[in-house]
Amino acid sequence: MSGYFKRKEKWHKKYLQKDATLPMEIKVEEVSPQMSVIIPQGEIDMGSSGELRDVLHKTTKNKVQTIIVSLEDAGHIDSSGIATLIEALKKVEAYSGELRVVINTKKIFNVFKIANLDMVFKIYESTQDAKNA
Amino acid sequence: MTTVVLKNISKSFFNSKLKKMEIVLNNISLTAQHGEVTVLMGQSGCGKSTLFRILIGEEIADSGCVSILEKEVFPLNKKNLQEVKKKFGILFQYGALFNSMNVGDNIAFPILEHQPQLHRDIIDIMVDTKLRQVSLEPEKFKHKMPATLSGGERKRVGLARALALDPQLIFYDEPSAGLDPIVSRTIDKLIKNLVKMLGIASVVITHELDSAFAIADRMIILKRAVPEHNDDWDGTIVYEEGTPDDLRNSQKPYTVEFLGEFSNFEICKNCRFVQQKQFTTCEKCGKPQSE
């Protein structure tokens, strides 16, 4: 990281970070010790993806074998949300787990498709399908 | 939804040689719709670039009104302008990359400026995703310096940076100028995909006719109004506006002259491939041209 970004990051941490994150409700359903369903509600954008990251971090830290992220109640996901899922996928794959994503709208599916991520993630149309897979 | 509205924009510059004000834009009104590619065309010196700078807030018009994403940004409203600037991306003609930063830092720059709360690891993944979107391999390009990139690569990195904040609107200044036909078509395809799949509105300024016809949903041709009897310049006018098919079949003398040879070509309605009228089927997708 260049000197400019280091100074910038330090400055932002000092003055801005506390106010920057917007709240987002995330439901976590523990189906079994080996399976968790994470349901973010509302828009997953640059202001709120940090919360999803925290929840995914806790789940991957416990090495839950199958994590299902249901985007059925998410109105929108931006590239920071996608990046959060990619980070989680890397962590899950490191302990040979599985990350499944539930998408039921074309709008959200297109965000994955344009970045060629529809081939990277295991995508299902409903949470039930993801649980049964 | 109307994404960009320009109403009665006028702009003049002081000509130090003639020691008088010279009108560049006179009473221009334009609109660009959500989910559409709007292409602005016109001969050199007709005021396209001035209009572009006014649109992105780099130039202040003398009079008129500019609204972007339903927020009025001119007459100058700094709060709205700052808010709107986060929601649109700009691809400059030569990429306008920071030469002192590598490709990854160039793309990360707007994210760090506007969304500093994001974790650095997340930003790194976002940069990789944006590079893949513009068909560049992150491992190969992320650490390169702009000086080592070719023209096409610079432009694609510039586009990745324009996409960094997931904009709702992108302004392109000559996106395919100086590129070979293959890279040019890749950029055109990318612009079309962004509009089709994510609904991002695009305003494109270009001279490349085949590229313009391949991507445009609506085209606007600007003309520099030539004074007949005096040397007082009365500014650019919007000469003609319509779909690519409307303009291709236009009978207006300036449009026919400007589009020139292009009137001998047609666009496939299925894949928008541009080819000469003499062919009965599309050379790319094979569909009959009469369909």
TrEMBL record, chain A:
**Domain of life per record:** Bacteria
Q: Which SUPFAM superfamilies does its entry note? A: SpoIIaa-like
A molecular function (GO) held by this record is: anti-sigma factor antagonist activity
InterPro entries noted in UniProt: Anti-sigma_ant, STAS_dom, STAS_dom_sf
STAS domain residues are 33-133
* Annotated signal peptide: none
Which CDD domains does UniProt cross-reference here?
STAS_anti-anti-sigma_factors
Among Gene3D superfamilies, the record links this protein to:
STAS domain
- Record-linked NCBIfam families: ant_ant_sig (TIGR00377)
Sequence similarity: Belongs to the anti-sigma-factor antagonist family.
Q: What is this protein called?
A: Anti-sigma factor antagonist
UniProtKB/TrEMBL annotation, chain B:
Keyword Nucleotide-binding tagged: yes
Q: Keyword set for this entry?
A: ATP-binding, Nucleotide-binding, Transport
Every ABC transporter domain range = 4-249
UniProt-listed PROSITE patterns = ABC_TRANSPORTER_1, ABC_TRANSPORTER_2
Give the Gene Ontology MF terms in alphabetical order.
Answer: ATP binding; ATP hydrolysis activity
Pfam families named among the record's database cross-references = ABC_tran (PF00005)
Protein name as annotated:
Polyamine ABC transporter ATP-binding protein
Per the UniProt entry, what species is this protein from, by scientific name?
A: Uabimicrobium amorphum
